[in-house]
Amino acid sequence: MTATNGAGAAGAASASEKPCACPCGAPITGRGPTGMCKPCATRAARKVQLAKPGAIEKLREQGRRTGARNIRLAHTPEGKAKAAAANAQRMAWCPTEYRDLNSTLRRKGFGLAERQDMIRAEAAKAARA
Ligand SMILES: [Zn+2]
C-alpha cells in the first residue's frame, strides 16, 4: 500500500464514493464532507456564518472599532481560546515536537493519512533510539 502514488489509485478509490469535482469544475482534494473544492466550501461556510442574525452588524461594529485592516484585533480572548482549543483537538494526533514537520509535509502536498503514517513512524523510530 505504501508503494501507491499519484492520481491513479486516489481517483479509482474516490470515484464510487463521492464526486471528483466541485460543481464549479475544480478538482476536490482531501476528504471534506461538503463535496466542494476548498474555495467553494469556504465561501459556503462564510455565507452561512453571515446569515446568522446580527452577524453582519457585529462585523461592521468591529470594523468601526479597529479599522477594516485590523479586524483581527477585534477577536476576543474567549474567541481566541475557543479557536486554540479547537486547534489542539484537531492536532491531538500529532506530538508537539512534530508539528513543524507536519506543516512542512502538508505544504509539500501530503494528505493527512500519509502525514500521520510518516510522523507515527518517525515517533516510533525516535522512541526506539
Ligand atoms: Zn468549487
Describe the protein in words.
The chain is an all-alpha fold and 129 residues long. It folds into two domains: 19-74, no CATH class; 91-129, no CATH class. The chain has six helices and no strands. It has helices spanning 7-15, 38-51, 55-66, 77-90, 99-107, 112-128. Helix 5 (99-107) packs antiparallel against helix 6 (112-128). It is flat. The two termini are 26 Å apart. Bound molecules: zinc ion (ZN). Zinc ion is lined by residues 22, 24, 26, 36-37, 39-40. Residues 22, 24, 26, 36-37, 39-40 line the site of zinc ion.
End-to-end CA span: 26 Å
Structural class: mainly alpha
What's the total helix number? 6
Give the CA-based shape. Answer: flat
Q: Mean pLDDT across all residues, rounded?
A: 82
**Ligand set:** zinc ion
Order of helices and strands: HHHHHH
How many β-strand stretches? 0
Give a short account of the largest sheet: none
Number of domains: 2
Query: What is the gyration radius calculated from CA atoms?
Result: 19 Å
